[in-house]
Amino acid sequence: MKMLRFLPLVLVALIVAAMVWRLANPPDTDVASGMIGKPVPEFAATAALPGEPMLSSANLADGRPKLVNFFASWCVPCIGEAPVLAILKQQGVPIVGIAVRDRPADLRQFLSDNGNPFERIGSDPQSKLQLAFGSAGVPETFVVDGKGIIQSQHIGPIEPDDVPGLVQAVKDAK
Amino acid sequence: MKRLVLILALALASPAWGDSSLPPAYWANRQLPDARQEAKAQGLMEEIRCLVCQGQSIADSDAEIAGDMRDLVRRRIAAGEQPSAIRHWLIQRYGAWITFMPPSEPATWPLWLAPIALLVGGALIARARLKKRAAK
Q1: Mean pLDDT over all residues of chain B?
Q2: Do A74 and B52 make contact, defined as CB atoms within 8 angstroms?
Q3: What pTM did the predictor assign?
Q4: What's CA A57's distance to the chain center, in Å?
Q5: Among candidates B19, B52, B71 on the partner chain, residue whose Cβ is nearest the Cβ of A74
C-alpha cells in the first residue's frame, strides 16, 4: 500500500516520457484526400493566363492519363519542384496545372523563371478547386486516369526520386 | 549594440513565403446579411478543423485556406444548403478528421465512453471513501 504513494510520480514520469517521445517523433500532418478512386469533381476553371486554354473536368477525362499539379507562384517548394516536372514532361507525362490564389502577372514571371511544363493551367483564386479535390496545400499532385478517375495523390513537392514511380503510376492509369 | 542589431534583424526579417498576395475571399471575413444563416454558418465553422493550423477551427484560424473555407461555408449556407450537407461534403474529402465533432463509430467509441467511465469510476471511489469515513 505504501508503494501507492509513488503512483502520481510514476504517472507524471509516464506523461513526460510520452511528451518527449512525441517531440522526438512529430506526427505526420499530411491530410490525405478522400477523393482517391472517385471521378474528379466537375468544374470549369478560367485560364490562369488570359488567352491561354482554360481547364475543365472534361479535359481530365480525354482518354489520356495525366498529372494534375496544384501549385502557385507564391509557393517556394514549387520552385524546387519545377525542374522535376520538366523531367516528367520530357518522359511524355501530360501535366496540367491548377494555379492556387495566383495573379496572371506573378504566374507569368514564375513560369518564365522556372519553366512551363503544363498543357493547360486553370485558375483557382479562392481555393475552390483545391477543396473540391480534397487537397490541403501546395504543391500537391494527383494522378488522374483517362476516364477522369483520381488514382492517387502525391503530397508535397515531387522529388527526383519520385519520378519513376509517378511515370509508372500514369502508365498504369490507362 | 548587440540589442540594436537584434531589434533591426527582427524588424527587417521577412515572413515565410507561405501566403499568396491575393486578398481574402469575399465571405472570408464578412458576415452573411441574414442573421439566422450567419448563425448556422458560424456554428459549422467553429467545428471544422483548419487544414493548415490543425488545432484551430476555420472560425479561429487566420490561414488563407481557412478564409477560403469560411467563404465556401457561407456561400453554400446562403444558397440554402444545410450545415450537415456541407459537413458531409468536407468529410468525403478530408475524412472525419476535418470535424471537431467526430462521428460515433467503433473507432471513436472509447472517446465518447471515456467521460462516462471516468465519472462512474470517480463516483465509486468517492462512495468507498465516504463509507470508510462514516464507519470511523
Answers
A1: 89
A2: no
A3: 0.82
A4: 17
A5: B19
